[in-house]
Design brief:
The protein is of the alpha/beta class and about 325 residues long. Helices cover about 35% and strands about 15% of the residues. An eight-stranded parallel beta sheet has the order 3-4-5-8-9-10-11-12. A two-stranded antiparallel ribbon has the order 1-2.
């Protein structure tokens, strides 16, 4: 497996997005089951773990810290600050430098580590100058608490402003067959500046894996229940894309999830993907996708089948989209 570069770190092309071990999707595993997934991931060769302070209101960072403390030298650790769960479950986005510094201190304590390898601004609040927010992240690097810094869900223009203050190691945004927004401008900016790109939800929040067959099965407090693509009538329209995906994957001798992951990785060597799962079989399946080399015909067929023109519904509702500084397809 050829490694990929995330800032100064050389990692496997497939990392582990840890969010759904403690947050957002249902059903959720017990802490014991979640810990077993983390340990199994290391055993399989995963060496890039992604978390954030908002996931489970700190529970995800605590889980990683307690479970993997004795194996800290085996993986690159990424976390994020600047977005927290407020009382009542509402998200609070704050890019104030003092808040960023405080968030990092709290994350270090929960993660039981002296340094976070890659620390992202989870969301930019768009009222704090991005230069000030990045300056706070740079201060953490100079203090030895963070090794490299990143931004999540920002536009190409914001990335350029931020990179002028301090080198940005990585941009993290949603990217998959059914979410192509980074192709508008951000991927080009990453290539121009030498910034790595980390694709979250590369299997379409589980949809492209084919296991979610009925929108009614999504619990009301599952994050996806509020996403237009998982609501009627969009879900039914999108579901019609799956047989074609399954046929392409079957012809290539891989699973639909592996086909989707291999497509993401094929787009550029600067990209790494961080699918999440609570299932150890899927964990191994996802990691093996890094060794899948789809033919040009298969890649073209996937590209034509699932894209911004064929997918029904925006990725976020209007309220969530208003929080995000990214280029979006109309």
């Amino acid at each position: 497996m050829k490694k990929r570069q995330i800032g100064p770190f050389s990692v496997a092309p497939i990392g582990l997005g840890c969010m759904n071990l403690s947050h957002a999707y249902l059903p959720r595993p017990s802490p014991e089951q979640a810990g077993a997934v983390l340990r199994r991931a290391l055993d399989l060769g995963y060496d890039f773990f992604d978390t954030a302070m908002i996931y489970g209101a700190g529970a995800n960072e605590t889980l990683i810290g307690e479970t993997l403390r004795s194996r800290r030298g085996e993986y690159v650790l990424a976390s994020k600050g600047g977005m927290a769960l407020l009382p009542g479950g509402k998200r609070g986005i704050d890019s104030n430098p003092a808040v960023i510094a405080e968030n990092c201190e709290e994350s270090l304590e929960r993660l039981k580590t002296d340094v976070i390898d890659l620390y992202y601004l989870h969301r930019w609040d768009r009222k704090t100058p991005i230069e000030d927010a990045v300056g706070a992240l740079a201060d953490l690097v100079r203090a030895g608490k963070v090794r490299a810094i990143g931004l999540s869900e920002v536009s190409a223009a914001t990335l350029r402003k931020a990179h002028a203050v301090h080198p940005i190691a990585a941009i993290q945004s949603e990217y998959s067959l059914w979410t192509r927004n980074p192709e508008i401008a951000v991927l080009d900016a990453c290539r121009e500046l030498g910034v790595s790109f980390v694709a979250f939800s590369p299997v379409g929040r589980g949809f492209l894996g084919g296991g979610l067959r009925d929108a009614a099965a999504i619990a009301p407090n599952d994050l996806r229940a509020g996403h237009p693509r998982f609501q009627a009538p969009n879900f039914a329209a999108n579901y019609k894309l799956l047989p074609g995906l399954e046929a392409i994957a079957r012809q290539a001798g891989v699973t639909p999830a592996q086909a989707g992951l291999a497509w993401v990785l094929s787009r550029d060597p600067l990209i790494a993907a961080i699918p999440g799962t609570v299932n150890e079989t899927h964990l191994a399946e996802n990691f093996a996708a890094a060794n899948v080399a789809l033919s040009a015909d298969s890649l073209s067929a996937l590209d034509a089948l699932i894209n911004q023109r064929t997918v029904s519904g925006p990725r976020y509702n209007a309220a969530t989209q208003a929080e995000i500084d990214t280029e979006e397809f109309a």
